[in-house]
Design goal:
- There is one protein chain.
- Helices cover 78% and strands 0% of the residues.
- It is built from eleven helices and no strands.
- Helix 6 (91-115) crosses helix 8, helix 7 (119-127) runs antiparallel to helix 8 and helix 8 runs antiparallel to helix 11.
């Protein structure tokens, strides 16, 4: 049985992971499409910046978010003064940190799906009079859908496990930013917290494994529906 604080951490983790995934999905599709189809000067630099969260320590990402989106940062101060939005030390900020860390995983999955599309189908549609938007909605998007779904679920799973950037940017506040990884960390630093840590670790393991299995299942299901075995 989970305690109220553990249930609170679970609920917050699911909330953060859901909103972080939904928030970055449109940008991930756009970035993946640019990387897969466009050819421009500086493409390698653009690709490197997008995938930087995969190689940089999460604490570095959290620090960069802190100095840019904090109340004294250039973007954070503007958001606060203009819209009254404060990201630091909030669950919304936790979603931002998780989304930034999960973003490259989503981009990679979607990009691979786009690169696997036969461009001849789009060329045939163009010769039949289909415009760019029509081609994207009727051909490109359906064919890349397995990658979109897989990338979204992978990003969701990664957001559930995000720790370093979150604790650096929004701290470890019960009920506000203490997600499952932070709750596990807190339990390990608490006397007689071994049982609580073990329960939360088992819960995190189950959620992450379930998300990975769901990602594979959705990808296969969509490919079968589309006749791509």
């Amino acid at each position: 049985m989970l305690t109220p604080l553990e249930i609170e951490a679970l609920s917050l983790s699911l909330w953060v992971a859901t909103w972080s995934t939904l928030a970055v999905l449109p940008f991930a599709i756009l970035a993946a499409f640019i990387l897969a189809r466009a050819d421009f000067w500086g493409k390698s630099l653009f690709d490197g910046i997008i995938h930087m969260p995969l190689v940089l320590p999460p604490v570095v990402i959290g620090y960069l978010l802190l100095i840019t989106l904090g109340t004294r940062g250039p973007i954070g101060s503007w958001l606060l003064e203009t819209f009254g939005i404060r990201l630091i030390f909030t669950s919304a900020g936790a979603s931002v940190a998780a989304g930034v860390m999960a973003f490259p995983l989503m981009v990679r999955a979607i990009r691979q799906a786009i690169e696997a599309i036969d461009t001849g189908l789009e060329a045939a549609a163009r010769t039949l009079g289909a415009g760019p938007l029509d081609r994207f909605l009727t051909i490109t998007l359906p064919l890349m859908l397995p990658g979109v779904l897989s990338g979204a679920v992978l990003a969701f799973a990664a957001s559930l496990g995000e720790f370093g950037a979150t604790i650096t940017f929004v701290s470890n506040i019960p009920g506000e930013t203490r997600t499952l990884p932070l709750a596990i960390y807190t339990a390990t630093q608490t006397p007689d917290g071994d049982a609580e840590a073990a329960r939360l670790v088992a819960l995190s393991f189950g959620l992450s494994l379930g998300a990975l299995i769901l990602s594979e299942y959705l990808g296969r299901r969509v490919r079968r529906m589309m006749g791509r075995f």
